[in-house]
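Continuing the batch. This is chain 6 of the set; chains 1 through 5 are on the previous pages. Same settings as before, nothing changed between runs. Recording input and output for traceability.
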Amino acid sequence: MKLKEGNTYKFGVERDINIEGVEFFLLTGPDKRRYLLKKEYYPVYNIQVKQVINCRVDKINCMGEIFLEPEHPYYTEGRSYDFEVVRNEIRVDKSGTRHPVTVVRDHFGSELSVTGSNAGSVDIIGDGVLNLKISRIEKGNILFSETDESVRTEKEEDERIYDFIVLDRMKGLDGEIYLVLGDSDGREYSLQERYYKHYGLKPGMNFTGRFIRYNSGEIIRVEPENPFFKPGSVYKFRVKEIININDSSDTIIIVNDIYGFSHIVNLDKDVNPDEEINMRVERIRKGWPLLVQV
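Output for chain 6:
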């Protein structure tokens, strides 16, 4: 069976698993393959081990990777709902641009942001209530409109190292916490804090990094230099776990580094749990090394 983008299927929640310091649910799909779903995106979904959940195939990228979006327990895309108005404030987008927003509270008490232009086109029902149409649900986030977050800078991806300073820590349009960065030319950028907690970055700190583009067509982002790994270097890792995929020769291989972090790797050779192997760091992406077999 082949899963199709945009379709919804039933997935079994097999167990919890920790990789690179992040908690995941290990799911089994109708195609008998296993998938990883980040737990931190779905705190109000009450997903439990041994449960069967509905997930939409949100995206299938050019590498064949499948990204899932569980069915929201309360909201449905394309429908309108009443939201309590909490306050007005400034939030930052992924490019580092600041926006005035209206903050509203959803059914579960979570705070969501509505950009000024979008808030101006919604129905106002009495004092302190907005009737908003849900455009999309992505990684558990309720989105009311598509926001232009293209980088307004002439910077391009390159290998040179630049100096940056952490200017501020603030919420983004998606509700995530971002670090606002500045360069020597006075330009501002943003960095999603969750991926770099192990770096210890805080407002007022200086660091070095470079400009990268994670995927073709995406915006340019700042990638701080990793304090643990250097691209091109070889390091020793120990095999922690080998997870066999049902009805498939594929496996998920999890290794530990000397710092205690776990990583998923692809290997062409057979390995055993607790075996020590050498892996080369190809590049750093969102704070974590991409490892290749030596």
